[in-house]
Structure formats: C-alpha cells, structure tokens
Amino acid sequence: MKFINREREIGFLKKIHRDKQSQFIVIYGKRRVGKTELVKQ
C-alpha cells in the first residue's frame, strides 16, 4: 500500500520504534483508512 502525504507520521513512528524508551502510542481513526498498514510500514 502506498501512503500519500504521510511522511511525517511514518517518520514519527520510525523514530519511536528506534528509541530505547518504552512509550504508549494510540493510533485512531475511521475504519478502513489504513491504520494497521501505517503501523506495519
């Protein structure tokens, strides 16, 4: 799946994933908008 205009969000999630600190992240939105695919990316 290709994301359009999501560079900021993808960059944020990659930064959080690289950090060694434990953090709680909530991703919410309407159904079928690509939340799970965004996390998989």
Number of strands: 0
The tally of helices reads 2
Task: Please identify the structural class as seen in this structure.
Answer: mainly alpha
Rounded to the nearest angstrom, the radius of gyration is: 11 Å
**Rounded average pLDDT:** 90
Query: How would you describe the oligomerization state of the chains in this entry?
Result: single chain
Strand residue content: under 5%
Question: What's the domain count?
Answer: 1
What is the terminal-to-terminal distance? Answer: 9 Å
Layout of secondary structure:
Blueprint: H1 7-18, H2 35-40
Description:
With 41 residues, the protein is an all-alpha fold. Helix content is 44%, strand content 0%. It has 2 helices and no strands. It has helices spanning 7-18, 35-40. The model has no long low-confidence stretch (mean pLDDT 90).
Overview in brief:
This protein is mainly α and 41 residues long. The chain is built from two helices and no strands.
What tags apply to this protein structure?
single chain; 41 residues; mainly alpha
